[in-house]
Amino acid sequence: MKAALKLWLDQDGKAFGDGPYELLKRIEATGSLHKAAAQMEMAYSKAWKMTRTIEQRLGFMVLEREVGGRSGGGSRITPRGKELMSCYAKFREEAQEAVNRIFQKRFSSFKEPRASEEPPRLFIKKQPNSR
Questions:
Q1: Which of 51, 77, 47 is nearest to 63 (CA)?
Q2: Residue 14 pairs with which residues in a beta bridge?
Q3: CA dihedral 80, 81, 86, 91 (to 10 degrees)
Q4: Which terminus, N or C, of the chain has the lesser number of Cβ atoms within 10 Å?
Q5: How much is the pLDDT for 116?
Q6: Quick one: pLDDT band at residue 2, thresholds 50, 70, 90?
Q7: Could you say which of 3.30.390.50, 1.10.3080.10, 1.10.10.10, 1.20.1600.10 is the CATH number of the domain covering 10-110?
Q8: Where do the domains of the chain lie?
């Protein structure tokens, strides 16, 4: 048994969490919103809306977008977007560590069966023959 934790930043609704973080990480790696969405098996339109929602709710741009042209366009994470990603990653890591410590404190007795406890037994009652 282990503790699970789901975190997000809220600003008039969900503004940033694991999904948007992963999308931005992939944009950073590929230089493309389209490629990042494809890697996540997400529709481009959903990825585009997700980045717009982040920007609207948090009040700053997370992507610099280049439209078309000879190089085909692309996306880059803004300095403020990189700062957001870094803070979120550290926040998530520290929150999980804290939850793990609390979990150990409160649930350590549930890790293994107590010596005084017998494993559950299975009893099968035979049905009388109806013949």
A1: 77
A2: 10
A3: 100
A4: C
A5: 60
A6: confident
A7: 1.10.10.10
A8: 10-110
SS3 label, residue 20: helix
Angle separating helix axes 44-58 and 18-30, nearest 10 degrees: 110
Structure tokens at 118: 């017998």
Q: Contact, 51 vs 43, CB < 8 A?
A: no
Measured distance CA(54)–CA(8) in Å, rounded:
12
- Please give the average per-residue pLDDT across 1-25, as a whole number: 94
- Name the pTM for this structure: 0.78
Query: What are the residue ranges of helices labelled H in the chain?
Result: 18-30, 33-39, 44-58, 79-107
Which contacts qualify for 98-101: CB closer than 8 Å, 24 or more apart?
99/3, 99/5, 100/3
One-character DSSP codes across 105-116: HHHGGGSS--TT
As given in the structure block, the two tokens for residue 14 are 């969900």
Residue with tokens 């990825």: 47
- pLDDT, tens digit, 9 for 90 and up, residues 49-96: 999 999 999 999 999 988 765 666 789 999 999 999 999 999 999 999
